[in-house]
Amino acid sequence: MTAMMEGKKIVLGITGSIAAYKAAVLARGLVKKGAEVQIVITPSGKEFITPVTLSALTGKPVISEFFAQRDGSWHSHVDLGLWADAMVIAPATASTIGKMANGIADNMLITTYLSMKAPVFVAPAMDLDMFAHPSTRRNLDLLRSYGNHIIEPAEGELASHLVGKGRMEEPEQIIEVLEHFFHRQQDLAGRHIVITAGPTYEKIDPVRFIGNYSSGKMGYALAETCARRGAEVTLVSGPVTLKTVHPRIHRIDVESAEQMYQAAKAAFEQADAGILCAAVADFTPSTVADQKIKREKDDLVLHLQPTHDIAAALGHLKQPRQRLVGFALETNDEVLHAQDKLQRKNFDFIVLNSLNDPGAGFRCDTNKITLIDRQQAMSYPLKPKAQVAEDIVDKLAAILE
Ligand code: C5P
């Protein structure tokens, strides 16, 4: 991971905490690792550390006001938001965290934060009671829900001489978090991953079908994550209203379980891994009526026949170099059923989401998962689907040959 910071553009936000002195060490450490560092400091940050020290370390003027004082030129927070590969706010005070959580853009640091396109890392620093206060907890939860990364403060003696949690994480550790993040960003380079997503529609007649509530959000989040981390992705998608953004996602739109089966099977042959996220119909009408079926007095009986189990078929075809990840949505004896599915379909691991958990499963923007392999089951807290996708892809990246 040594060269991970080389050439990276980092916006370092500094706020008014005694830990601001550590930000100088952080800036120096980032520059030594080859990063380009642009510091944005709040007015109270300047009370703790002088911009002269900071600009000497980074070789760039420190930005603190909306306008440069000498010539009145405007500092563009929008340009900074587009320029950066990451933003790190260290130290982050309770006040700045509160403003970030609520969009109170009364200084250059917050406007830069609100314009930021790159991932944001926040290293809180405050006294233990401030850190433990429900408003701080809530604001940090809000930042997490926006997808920001919180670098938890350490326990220890604080500037107030009180002992507890609130001490900003050491600069070396913060750099390690960033290096790990950048490393992870490209850990799937050169890989080819097939992902199935969304529902299938099984035709009854020209205007009716059997479908399900799957939105495709989880599968699309996985496709974006894999592509962003360097993989070529073949996304075999049932009918959904979602769009794909990343140029490395090759999307094949299908409608029925049979079409999904054919497309997934063909793509899997050359792939390094498959993630089977689609909610595939288990049964399909044996015959499709040519004309719209008319209302009649008698009951209508549809004869259904089983579809291909795409997961089991790929599990059967799987070569030793290939990996396969399945999903399970269970309503009872969840872990047992998921373990059984893992064996039967020859998955390397399975993602269990339970309908018993509020905010998990179909149509939600969040999900709560347990990752189960042959050795262990690991449960994760409720998170936005984009972050759940990172957790799943972390595990997949770790087991790829
Ligand atoms: O057996 P069950 O349908 O619950 O298994 C769920 C897993 O199998 C999911 O990964 C789903 O995408 C996959 N599956 C499939 N083809 C089917 C049915 C399920 O790929 N026909």
Short note summarizing the structure:
This protein is of the alpha/beta class and 401 residues long. 35% of the residues lie in helices and 23% in strands.
Overview features:
single chain, 401 residues, alpha/beta, eight-stranded mixed sheet, five-stranded parallel sheet
Can you walk through the features of this model?
- By secondary structure, the protein is of the alpha/beta class.
- Helices cover 35% and strands 23% of the residues.
- Strands 12-11-8-13-16-17-19-20 form an eight-stranded mixed β-sheet, with helices on both faces. The chain has a five-stranded parallel β-sheet with strand order 2-1-3-4-5, with helices on both faces.
- The relative contact order is 0.09.
- Bound molecules: cytidine-5'-monophosphate (C5P).
- Cytidine-5'-monophosphate binds at residues 196, 257, 276-278, 280, 282, 307, 309-311, 326-328, 341.
Question: Which spans of ≥5 residues are poorly predicted at pLDDT below 50?
Answer: none
Placed side by side, the strands forming the largest sheet appear as 12-11-8-13-16-17-19-20
Alpha-carbon Rg, integer: 25 Å
Number of strands: 21
Bound molecules: cytidine-5'-monophosphate
Mean pLDDT: 93
Structural class of the helices, strands and pairings?
alpha/beta
Q: Tell me about the largest β-sheet.
A: 8 strands, mixed
Q: What oligomerization state is this entry in?
A: single chain
> How many H/I helical runs?
14
End-to-end distance: 19 Å
Percent helix among the residues? 25-40%
How would you sum up the global shape? elongated
